[in-house]
Amino acid sequence: MSRMLEVLDYGLTRHSNLGAGFPHALHADPEFLLSACRQADSAGVSRITIFDTDGKADPFSIFQVIQELREAVKCELFFHAHNDLGLATANSLAAVLAGADGLDATVNGLGDRAGNASLEQVLINLILEEIDSGIDPSRLKDLSLLVEDLSGVPVHPLAPVLGEYVFTHESPGHHGITDLFEAFKPELLKGGE
């Protein structure tokens, strides 16, 4: 850890707003990670980011790690999720509920391999938990379409939140009572119009 402290000391002499990121953090010995984060915090970093680099973490372990780190450090604590097992949204929500100050998320979940935490999925979950992100959900669809166009990567019709079929009901049992089968109101994406 002396090398980490040397690098942080060097960086902090040149810029007062410096963060420390811990890729593969969830593969490290928990005591080692806790010690490294405490030392980075004591050195004066403004933010620590914990990465689920290979996307193998689960929400329960994320909650535990972030909660322990939140109690141990004073600086901002961020979480970066990958979606290799389809848990990036759940892991990101667990991180926030455990005390993370912020998340790394991407529009339409774009990112390496299976992608990163999807901004639109994380945002709607935060809204449902009554956690204010400062992001207007009514702008998500336009942003998603722009990123889809620029990236050339289409949003799958079955994608949560913004997929074409999210509010489509095929089952006859849903007719007339569709709102009982929807996780959130469509108006949320339209700004209440």
Can you tell me about this structure?
The chain is α/β, with parallel strands linked by helices and 193 residues long. Helices cover 40% and strands 10% of the residues. The chain has seven helices and four strands. The chain has a four-stranded parallel sheet with strand order 1-2-3-4, covered by helices on one side. Helix 2 (30-43) runs parallel beside helix 3 (59-72) and helix 3 packs parallel to helix 4.
Task: Give the key terms.
193 residues; alpha/beta; 4-stranded parallel β-sheet; 4 strands; 40% helix
Topology, number of strands? 4
Roughly what fraction of the amino acids lie in strands?
5-15%
Largest sheet: 4 strands, parallel
Instruction: Report how far the terminal alpha carbons are from each other.
Output: 54 Å
- Which structural category do the helix and sheet elements fall into? alpha/beta
Low-confidence stretches are: none
SSE string, helix = H, strand = E?
Answer: HEHEHEHEHHH
Helical residues, percent: 25-40%
Give the overall shape.
Answer: elongated
Order the strands across the largest sheet as they lie in space: 1-2-3-4
- Put simply, the count of helices is 7
How confident overall, as mean pLDDT? 91
Radius of gyration: 19 Å
Chain-wise SSE layout:
Blueprint: H1 2-14, E1 19-22, H2 30-43, E2 47-52, H3 59-72, E3 76-81, H4 88-97, E4 102-104, H5 119-128, H6 140-151, H7 187-190
Parallel strand pairs: 1-2, 2-3, 3-4
Helix pairs in contact: 2-3, 3-4, 4-5
